[in-house]
Design goal:
Blueprint lengths: L7 H10 L6 H118 L7 H12 L1
């Protein structure tokens, strides 16, 4: 057991013991008082030791919670960075989608123009075909139904002169 360092309380109780060598009763009372003071100090020491151990245990719990909180904060920072990267990627994807939509709209306009041109060309071809049919009908009325197209074209040229 570790020897206790003298304290003002124990020094005072010890000094009382030797104040008057002649009065043995007083010396006995002082020794008894010193024993009582020592018991009180031991109780206080035991109480303080328990308090210290409880505080140490609470501190350890707090340290664990602080470490967990720090780990959680690190995790949250990492997650926030990932979310920022995801947001940036999402923005980039959205921008690309807008660009593609713009390109598709331009291609759609071009396709509509081409379709209109093809429709117009088909309508002109239909008109030319109708004209040719009318010519053929005309020639058939006049008895030229045995002729070939080349002969019909030549006859029409001759008739047009």
């Amino acid at each position: 057991m570790n020897p206790l360092k003298p304290t003002p309380r124990t020094d005072a109780a010890w000094a009382k013991t030797f104040e008057d060598d002649e009065d043995q009763c007083r010396a006995g009372n002082a020794a008894s008082d010193m024993r009582d003071e020592c018991a009180t100090l031991e109780r206080e020491l035991a109480t303080l030791t328990v308090e210290r151990d409880q505080l140490r245990a609470e501190f350890e719990k707090i340290a664990v919670i602080a470490a967990q909180t720090q780990d959680r904060n690190v995790s949250l920072k990492i997650e926030r960075k990932q979310l920022c990267h995801e947001a940036e990627r999402t923005d980039a994807i959205y921008q690309r989608a807008c660009e593609l939509e713009h390109e598709l709209r331009a291609e759609l306009v071009t396709a509509k123009k081409i379709l209109n041109e093809e429709t117009n060309r088909a309508e002109r071809a239909e008109a030319e075909l109708a004209t040719e049919r009318a010519r053929l009908d005309y020639l058939q009325e006049w008895g030229f139904d045995f002729l070939t197209r080349a002969a019909i074209d030549a006859a029409l040229k001759e008739a047009a002169k």
